[in-house]
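TA notes, week 10

Several of you asked for a full example with nothing omitted. So below is the full record: structure tokens for the whole chain, then the designed sequence directly under it. When grading your own attempts, check the secondary structure regions first.
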């Protein structure tokens, strides 16, 4: 009798454990459905609970990082993804590009441009060709906010070329903005030295060497810069999910101080002339 009771208790415990495992598997399946249908808040709640109970594998935890990003919790997103990205090296290239982008955007939105820059660089190595202009555009801002004007100019210039290449009508305002940015950044670049008035002509044999072109942003070493099925929208589109549209950064505000200084200098010159010729 006692032996039969013990067997019954063991069977009940095993059955309860099996039912719990089945329930957790169903929750995980439901979380993936939420993720694929862009219900990131619901997905986040389930993945957080499952990760606390079982410590999910790196892919599911990366999904959780993406959910944090879509919930505007940028700090949680980059803290989680920063630790996971080294474990994702064997994933498909485009899937990795999504995590690079998500983590980079999270740092960018927290104004951590030094941390964001190498992640955009990582993305450029593995993303689709038509996704490169967005990464170059952001990378240009990272360099500009750190006063690295030449690198910023190169990134914006390459982004402009790719936007024009793919002819996306939705990017027309951004193309106009980049052109304005390039014009403003030129003011910060070193002026070319004038050629000598009467240069000496060297008649000795010359060995022609190809001139080096500006360093492409895609060629910047990662060390010195600091799914397919899963579709990640750019942040400007993402923020329309809740009626919050994020506008592109205006060059007027960025280059405002330069314009004000220039106007002040002009006003001083005019005032000086008036004082000299009353």
């Amino acid at each position: 009798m006692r032996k039969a009771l013990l067997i019954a208790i063991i069977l009940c415990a095993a059955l309860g454990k099996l039912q719990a495992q089945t329930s957790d598997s169903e929750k995980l399946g439901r979380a993936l459905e939420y993720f694929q249908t862009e219900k990131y808040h619901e997905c986040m709640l389930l993945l957080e609970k499952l990760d606390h109970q079982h410590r999910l594998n790196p892919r599911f935890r990366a999904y959780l990082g993406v959910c944090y990003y879509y919930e505007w919790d940028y700090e949680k997103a980059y803290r989680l993804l920063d630790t996971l990205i080294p474990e994702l090296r064997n994933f498909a290239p485009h899937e990795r590009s999504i995590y690079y982008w998500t983590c980079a955007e999270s740092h960018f939105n927290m104004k951590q441009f030094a941390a964001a820059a190498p992640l955009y660089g990582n993305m450029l190595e593995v993303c689709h060709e038509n996704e490169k202009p967005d990464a170059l555009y952001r990378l240009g801002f990272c360099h500009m906010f750190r006063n690295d004007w030449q690198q910023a100019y190169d990134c914006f210039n390459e982004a402009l070329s790719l936007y024009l290449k793919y002819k996306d009508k939705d990017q027309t305002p951004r193309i106009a903005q980049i052109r304005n940015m390039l014009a403003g950044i030129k003011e910060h670049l070193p002026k070319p030295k004038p050629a000598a008035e009467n240069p000496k002509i060297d008649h000795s044999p010359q060995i022609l060497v190809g001139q080096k072109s500006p360093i492409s942003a895609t060629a910047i070493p990662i060390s010195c810069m600091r799914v397919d099925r899963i579709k990640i929208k750019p942040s400007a589109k993402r923020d329309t999910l809740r009626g919050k549209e994020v506008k592109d950064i205006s060059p007027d505000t960025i280059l405002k101080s330069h314009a004000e200084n220039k106007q002040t200098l002009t006003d001083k010159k005019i005032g000086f002339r008036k004082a000299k010729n009353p």
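Residues 3-20, 203-237, 239-255, 272-278 have pLDDT under 50 and may be disordered. Use that as a sanity check on your answer.
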